[in-house]
Amino acid sequence: MPYLNLRPSQVILDPANPRLPDGTSSDKEAINRLIEEGAEALASLARDIVRTGQTNPAEIPIAMKQGSKYLILEGNRRFAALKLLKDPTLADNEEYRKLFERAAAARGNPPKSIYTLIVASREEADPWIILRHTGENGGVGIKRWSAGQIATHRRRANKSIDSGTLRSIVIADSLEEAYPADEELVELVRRVRREKLTNIGRFFSSEVLAALHFSIDVDKASSLDSRTLFVSHSTAQLRDFFLWAINFIQEHSVDAYKNAAVRHQVLLSAAHLIPSSADAAAEPFRLTDGVLDYSDELEDESITEDASDEESDAEDGFTRDENDPDPRAGSGGESDSQSSTSPLVGHDSQPGRQRREARPEKYLLQNLKLPHHPERVQRILAECRSLEMEQSPGIACVMIRVIVELSLSSPEALSLAGSTESTSLREKITRMLKFLDPNIEHAIHRDKELAQAYIEASELGVQYLNGFVHNPNVRPDVHLARRFSSAFRPLLRRIDEAL
């Protein structure tokens, strides 16, 4: 199909546009009808075009030749906005005209043309227009992000989001990072994240956080000043409570914890799972500082090294942004702060299952060995062993993508998975997972070791891996580096075994 860069003067708007059910007799009438449909929305689009210097490159307009002009079949609002920026007098209403005069006068440089798909007939364009405007269509059309996926993207791109949604994401991220090998808890967290993300924040409201000696504060250990969950008890002590709480959120509607009084009663019912305040640490610490170690994968020397780091952290204590509320202050207001006393914490409780604890992974793909991979991959992996993710999260995020792509792109790996060099990264990962585990698409029967890699490939993980390299608006951080390192380490090891 051919494409052309079309200027506003070369096009006419579609009189049969579904936004104009009664049709129009001229381009000027079509523009004013679109203004009447939503003047502020159209002006907002015009302002965005001026600010960015382009229209959305992910949505290409469609046009067909009509006489000496091109009839716009898809993208009428974008071309209407450009026409109004060039000539605001096209707007009949003086108030609306001023809207577009101000938009045109704003600092910026709107494009002179828009890259447009040219079709031979309206019938040729109809299938694509229908898919664009009528939802998922059984997976063929546009699948909209859930509220949780939108919020996750906005957080990773450093965009503002609702405080309750941010609280939900921080808690979910912290749980997945603090309990990486706890399949039961991690699967439950991911299920709630997909289906009821914002309910996590509703359950863990400010007064609940205070009652549990939790706080959500800026993580000064992160170079990006991201927020994380601070606690006063170990991951081992808190594990059973977190499992109960996330399961409660999954099984109940928000009415079961709709206000502070109801949430207080819910917590009282689980008081036996809440660690005693007598066992609380003198200073709060990141939940992710005490990752439960369920395996023998970590080498003894790395545990010894991490132990010395932990002692150093204990001496340093917890530091907060000077503008953040004191986590030991009361629970008044809307801040996610903790209280020094609580009627819930301090109840006689079981300390939880005691397991050996280790700090979060320090190096990218820590202790992974790939002896059957190409020499280039082995050399890059060896270099990563000296890459501290806390110090260089951006490099770590880029390098995990590089290693995964190189591992999947050797001739032997391509042959195993039935891929080619031109196959997309997402498809390479998915095909290799299907080769390694034919049941990977089945949540119950899939190989649990490979489950996280499949989830990352199926959802937003690969999009962010690509974004680390190609999109300056995607901001890497240490939590993402650790998440992807944990997700893809088993896949890389299994590929090496297959090779």
Tally of contiguous helical segments: 19
Number of strands: 10
Radius of gyration over C-alpha positions, nearest whole angstrom: 27 Å
Q: Biggest sheet, strands in spatial order?
A: 1-5-3-4-2
Low-confidence runs of at least 5 consecutive residues: 292-342, 346-358
Straight-line distance between termini: 41 Å
Secondary structure class reads alpha+beta
Shape: globular
Q: Whole-number average pLDDT?
A: 80
What is the ordering of alpha helices and beta strands? Answer: EEHHEEHHEHHHHHEEHHEEHEHHHHHHH
The helix fraction, in percent, is 40-55%
Task: Describe the sheet with the most strands.
Answer: 5 strands, mixed
- Work out the oligomeric state of the chains in this entry: single chain
Please indicate the percent range of residues in DSSP E strands (runs of 2 or more): 5-15%
Describe the structure.
There is one protein chain. This protein has three domains: 3-139, no CATH class; 147-358, no CATH class; 375-498, no CATH class. The two termini are 41 Å apart. It has 499 residues and is α+β, with helices and mostly antiparallel strands. Strands 1-5-3-4-2 form a five-stranded mixed sheet, with helices on both faces. A three-stranded antiparallel sheet has the order 6-7-8. A two-stranded antiparallel sheet has the order 9-10. The protein is globular and about 75 Å long. The protein has helices spanning 27-37, 39-52, 76-86, 94-105, 122-133, 147-156, 163-178, 183-203, 206-211, 235-251, 260-269, 300-316, 375-384, 393-409, 411-417, 425-436, 448-458, 461-470, 478-498; strands spanning 3-6, 11-13, 62-66, 69-74, 114-119, 215-218, 227-231, 285-286, 291-292, 357-358.
